[in-house]
Protein 1
Amino acid sequence: MKIEDLMTTDVGACRPFDSVDRSAKLMWERGCGVVPVVDQEGRVIAMLTDRDICMAALTQGRALGEIHVSSAMSRRLWSCRPKDDVKEAETVMRAHKERGGSFGSGPNSGSHQ
């Protein structure tokens, strides 16, 4: 099975200076627990998970509307290509002890870090 058989192509994204409440609403609307964080050119620079939001709220003690995505996002990224086998993605996830299945794919993908 290939990554393209499982991946979502209509993905919502957020920017580093968005508030995490906007990102949480996006996750709720899209029925997902993770969104990519993109720069001005639309390149993925980080990922933001629902867990990242919860931990930021707990550790920062502020309302979600006051917390920027940049203070909660995970900058560690690994990627794969749509034509890659799912087993390859699984190997990368295991090697880096990733819990979720969020990999970027696009013009900047292909490197595993």
Protein 2
Amino acid sequence: MKDNLTYLVVAIILVIIIVVAVNGTSATGNSIYRGTAHACTDTDKSNYKYVYGEVEFLQGGQVVVYGDKCLDNLHVRDYYCSGPNRLNSLSHFCPNGCVGGTCRSDSVVVN
């Protein structure tokens, strides 16, 4: 009886591990959507905060475009593909400000 209980507990733990692995959890919470086919392309090919890019992602049978965007004057949200069917995003600090969905590469002197 005790052996049967041990096998049952081990089986339940294995099922939980498999479910978590299949669903693709993200430790940083950046995962936005996981598709079922090769459905993610990124125009800037990176998550580089000084280059504007757009991600085309197949979501619910339709192509949705996610463009990098300023969250405020000092932060940019950069969308990128972390795999052929995985859309992610990162928030970056922009020390020189954020304009047009990209961090400014240098400071601007205002007279």
Protein 3
Amino acid sequence: MTAAKSENPALEAAKTADIVLIPCRRSFFEVDAMSWTANLLKISGKPGYVVLNALKPGSTKIQGDVVKAIEAYDLTAGVTHERCR
């Protein structure tokens, strides 16, 4: 569907998907923007999972805080750890 024919391309994409994976870093702004995404998923009726990235191994306090903030939006968060080279 082209942008001219779709009122909200993100909503159209979510409606067509089986599940929605949402990449997210640990920043306040990205977690705060999750409310928009959570509402979009409720409208689409599709499950969404947040993939937390750019967390350093051992950053359990930050990780826990971010996961709690994401769960407040009724989303499930998973964590990936990147290796710094």
